[in-house]
Amino acid sequence: MSNTGPGSLLAQPLQRPSAGRIAAYAGLFLLGAVVGFAGTLVQAAWFPGGLLLALAGAAGLFLGGAYATRGRGGAVAPVAGWIIAVVLLTTSRPEGDFLFGAGGGSYLFLLGGMVLAVICATLGAGRQPHGDPVRLGK
C-alpha cells in the first residue's frame, strides 16, 4: 500500500498553526531560556549533582514539550530558547564577568544539553494520525 495516497498524511498540505499552538511554542521557547539560565547556575553550584539536575530538567522540558504539543516542534522550541540563553551566557562582558567557568562541568553541560536536544527532538512524537492505535501502513 502506498504512503502517498489521498488519505495519507504525506499527501495532505501543511496548514498554518493555530494561535494556541503559536502561543504554546512561544511559551516553550521562553521556558527553554529560563531552564538554560537556571541550569547554568545550578550546574556550577552543586557539582556533579547540579550538572545532573540541570541536564535532567532540560531533557524533561524538551521531551515534555514534544509530547505536550504532539509534535517535534514542541521539542525544538525549548531547545532553541535553551541554546540561545546558554550561548549568550557563555560570552564574557567587557567588565570580565561571565557565568561559565573553564572547567569540565561547563563543557559537559553545554555538550550534554546539545546531545539531549537532538535525542529528545528525535524521540519526540512525530505527526501521527489520530484514532485507533494500529500499525501504520497496514
Automatic annotation (TrEMBL):
InterPro entries membership: DUF6113
Keyword terms, alphabetized: Membrane, Transmembrane, Transmembrane helix
Cross-referenced Pfam families: DUF6113
Transmembrane spans: 22-39, 45-68, 75-92, 98-125
Protein name: Integral membrane protein
UniProt organism field: Streptomyces broussonetiae
